[in-house]
Amino acid sequence: MKMQRGVIEHFEARSVFRGLLQGADFANRVGGSCIYGCPRCGHRIRFRWRSFYQAAGSSPFKRNVRRILDDLTPQLDARNCLDFHCPTCQAATRIVYSVTDSGGSACHFDLYAALVGEGKARR
Ligand SMILES: [Zn+2]
Questions:
Q1: How far is the CA of 83 from the centre of ligand 1 (A)?
Q2: What is the DSSP string of 56-108?
Q3: In what order do the strands lie in the sheet with 79-85?
Q4: Around ion ligand 1, which residues have CB less than 5 A away?
Q5: pTM for the model
Q6: Could you report the per-residue pLDDT of 25-60, keeping only the tens digit for each?
Q7: Among 85, 65, 66, 70, which Cα is nearest to 1's?
């Protein structure tokens, strides 16, 4: 499957997630859990806090896909990614988030955006 840069779209976290927390000094923070709705097919996935805690560094994507996504991922400090294929439409999806260590054993995950490739056409 050939993937071109043009088919990957950037979605703000709050346009594709439900249940994120907003506060005075943070935005789009994962509380206990949140619901992601695939912008290609509407498939919903519940993510829990530990989903992000466990996500670091692993990706199911081939290297060429990962490289395209890496180019589109903002290179700010402490940006992390959770990569997966939508179970319904197979769209390559990357959730970009930041990790804030609040001391002790707790850390916070603030979602930034979703980068979503093209899903398989379904009728
Ligand atoms: Zn989908």
A1: 13
A2: TT---S-HHHHHHHHHHS---TTEEEEEEE-TTT--EEEEEEEEEE-STT-EE
A3: 9-12, 107-116, 92-101, 79-85
A4: 38, 40-41, 43, 86, 88-89, 91, 119
A5: 0.87
A6: 999 999 999 999 999 999 999 999 989 988 766 789
A7: 65
CA of 95 to the centre of ligand 1 (A): 14
CA 74 to ligand 1 center in whole angstroms: 23
* pLDDT (tens place) for every residue of the chain, 123 residues total: 455 555 899 999 999 999 999 999 999 999 999 999 999 999 999 999 989 988 766 789 999 999 999 988 877 665 789 999 999 999 999 999 998 887 766 789 999 999 999 988 654
Find the 59 Cα to ligand 1 centroid distance in Å: 17
